[in-house]
């Protein structure tokens, strides 16, 4: 029996991780001789919708809000292994542990949050403790696919 392998390398500007998963699942279905569902809402539809949203007052208000929230931040803070910023004096340590997927999902469901928000909160809390600073601001290019019509489209959704 011959084996075939697919090597995949795609820059995130072309496709986000969610789209890659959808694409590979559809590709596997096609190799198995199954049909794949045609997108009902495409990446092009999303781009048109976002273009219209950018023209609204709500968008401008959100843009102003975030501009005002970030105006006091001077820039990025490099995390060093020493509280005084002396890298050679500090010790790097690593702590790893396992999380039970069902426990996390149950917690998220009971608190009406997504796993993405849960882990973002864990990251912020950890950074706050590590840096001795309660004013932590981080950003991400995407916070998930919030609408059901976005769930099955293959595009960069960032």
Short description:
This protein is mainly alpha-helical and 158 residues long. Helices cover 42% and strands 0% of the residues.
- Please, how many helices? 5
Give the radius of gyration: 21 Å
H/E series, N to C? HHHHH
Estimate what percentage of residues fall within beta strands.
Answer: under 5%
Look at the helices and sheets and give the structural class: mainly alpha
| Helix residue percentage | 40-55%
Distance between the termini: 41 Å
The best one-word shape is extended
Describe this structure in words.
This protein has a domain at 76-83 and 97-140. The protein has 158 residues and is mainly α. The model has no long low-confidence stretch (mean pLDDT 82). It is built from five helices and no strands. It is extended and about 60 Å long. The protein has helices at residues 17-31, 43-53, 57-70, 101-110, 115-131.
Keywords:
single chain, 158 residues, mainly alpha, 42% helix
SSE blueprint and pairings:
Layout: H1 17-31, H2 43-53, H3 57-70, H4 101-110, H5 115-131
């Amino acid at each position: 029996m011959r084996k075939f392998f697919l090597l995949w390398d795609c820059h995130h500007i072309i496709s986000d991780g969610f789209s890659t998963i959808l694409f590979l699942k559809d590709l596997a279905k096609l190799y198995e001789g199954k049909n794949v569902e045609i997108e009902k809402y495409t990446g092009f539809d999303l781009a048109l919708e976002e273009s219209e949203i950018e023209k609204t007052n709500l968008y401008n208000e959100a843009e102003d809000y975030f501009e005002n929230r970030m105006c006091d931040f001077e820039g990025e803070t490099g995390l060093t292994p020493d509280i005084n910023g002396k890298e050679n004096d500090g010790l790097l340590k690593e702590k790893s542990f396992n999380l039970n997927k069902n426990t996390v999902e149950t917690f998220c469901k009971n608190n009406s949050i997504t796993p993405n928000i849960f882990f973002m909160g864990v990251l912020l809390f950890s950074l706050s403790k590590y840096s001795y600073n309660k004013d932590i601001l981080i950003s991400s290019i995407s916070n998930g696919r919030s609408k059901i019509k976005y769930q099955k489209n293959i595009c960069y959704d960032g």
